[in-house]
Amino acid sequence: MNVLVTGANGFVGAHLCRRLVERGASVRAMVRKDSDHAGLKGQQVDIVHGDILDLPSLEHAVQDCEQVYHLAANVKFFTRDPEAMRAANTQGTRNVLSAARKAKVQRIIHTSTAAVLRRGQNSPSADETMLKDDHEAVGVYELSKLEADRVAVAAAKDGLPVTIINLTAPIGPGDAKPSPIGHTVVQFLKGNFPAYTESGLNVVDVRNAAEGHCLVAEKGKVGERYIIGGENISLKGFLDILGELSGVPSPKVKVPYALTLIGGVMGEITGRLTNKEPLACLASVRMGKYPHYVSIEKAKRELGYAPGQIRESLKEEIAWFREQGMI
Length: 327
Prior knowledge:
The chain is built from 11 helices and 14 strands. The chain is of the alpha/beta class and 327 residues long. The chain has a domain of 218 residues: NAD(P)-binding Rossmann-like Domain (Rossmann fold, 3-Layer(aba) Sandwich), CATH 3.40.50. Strands 3-2-1-4-5-7-11 form a 7-stranded parallel beta sheet, with helices on both faces. 49% of the residues are buried.
């Protein structure tokens, strides 16, 4: 089977390519020409250069492919260029689906994020039915991914064989950029986490996430969405595990939400002045106001999805960050 993976050199994309090859697929890994291909080093994949904002390059890459996994996205909570993020996440998705339609692809997996699902005091555990409205989106990242999600839904209703994945926070070795959750881990290991807030998240081993993508393509229903996640855990619990595994003290001081907003404002200012990812920004602070827990029961029931515990994954991630000299 010929398969195209967009964003193939990303954290999840690289692990997905490896898993697809293990399953016997012939993988075409689409990456931008000037991007870092290190995550694909040693893999038996066909690297093709292209850009999801360049429709002709997409149409070339998808030729003769039976499946498309669309993972390419701009994944940042802080950005100095909101329109560029919206273009990549929304128009990029539209382009991928257009190219797939033209090539008569049999299966399209669109990777969205669990961040587009509602959360809050009245909905502590989100499921696949709880899609946000635009006014509920926190920051341009969530809004752009929500827009892209709707593009995929509309395409499925129009007859395109699209299935949507709402992915939670992936962890494990190989998070080179790093991802938002990887950024949190790195900052913690550097000793830059003096306090915590009353929040929570869902975390999944990146290899479980890759397997989940394969299961969605194999068993998922066209037009449906599946949450691919792992373990719901409080932010304090997550930091405590990091502390136990790394030897770095976990913070003991809990700060109120109002105080973290001030930190978010300061992070925005710092990020805009330095053009570097701040420890926190307004979007990340607002996203952390309530625990963002999800239910993966649908994926377990319909796909046979069975993620493992996160402790060993975090142990491997810590070791990988240290080996790479990122700490």
